[in-house]
Design goal:
The protein is of the alpha/beta class and 219 residues long. 37% of the residues lie in helices and 16% in strands. It is built from 8 helices and 6 strands. It has a 6-stranded mixed sheet with strand order 5-4-3-1-2-6, sandwiched between helices. Strand 1, helix 1 and strand 2 form a beta-alpha-beta unit. It is globular and about 55 Å long. The chain starts with 7 loop residues before the first strand and ends in a 6-residue tail after the last strand.
């Protein structure tokens, strides 16, 4: 009789509640393999988990990620979940100690397989730079037809970052940032930065501080 496989305990971390919930929804069809026991928006993980899945939407990336702050002295392995999959950026994150890096274009079953590989001691990298059209999960502004990139730019504008700071944070060229700003502004009906900030503050683009723990799934 084969041994019973224990689901991997996962905490999902990002500054936006809708993003965290979106990732949890992607993993929900695999309860026999993955158990999401904690969701954190702007707060540290406090549950004993096997893997911390860190979504980079509107957040620090690459070698700027503070893995020690995420783990807080525990033994959890950190896996990055991002649409920024340039080899240099992946190398920086893994060099800091992340155990895996997964593209947001990855289907749910492959995300689960990657988390299982990390739990088994392997280091996981994205197979390739995959198209953004297949982005998994959710993000603020999606109901206003903002793409994932446009939404992240609006999130960073709402956080008070300049165009150059957004480019540095998102690993985009300054021209790409300006293009995303123009297309996003057109969709949300604004023309100035102050208007975009006000719109963002009223449409879920301010970072959250929320923690949700599923006590029924804790060991």
């Amino acid at each position: 009789m084969p041994p019973v496989r224990t689901p991997i305990r996962v905490a999902i971390v990002n500054d936006y509640e809708i993003v965290v919930a979106g990732v949890a929804a992607v993993l929900a069809p695999f309860p026999d393999r993955i158990r999401v026991v904690e969701l954190d928006s702007g707060l540290p993980v406090i549950t004993d988990v096997d893997v911390i899945l860190y979504d980079t939407f509107g957040a620090v990336q690459g070698d700027g990620i503070d893995l020690d702050d995420l783990v807080r002295g525990g033994g959890a392995k950190v896996v990055i979940f991002s649409w920024n999959c340039q080899p240099e950026l992946v190398d920086k994150a893994l060099g800091r100690g992340a155990r895996g890096y997964i593209s947001k274009a990855t289907p749910g079953d492959r995300i689960v397989a990657a988390l299982e590989a990390v739990q088994a001691g392997k280091r996981v990298r994205p197979r390739q730079v995959e198209p953004l059209e297949g982005t998994q999960g959710d993000w603020p502004g999606r109901d206003h037809n903002l793409t994932a990139r446009e939404a992240e730019v609006i999130a960073l504008i709402t956080q008070g970052l300049s165009n150059q700071e957004i480019a540095d944070r998102s690993y985009l060229s300054i021209n790409s940032v300006k293009t995303y700003i123009r297309t996003a502004y057109r969709k949300i009906g604004v023309s100035r930065r102050a208007q975009a900030v006000a719109w963002g503050m009223h449409h879920g683009f301010e970072p959250d501080r929320v923690r949700s723990i599923d006590d029924t799934r804790r060991p």
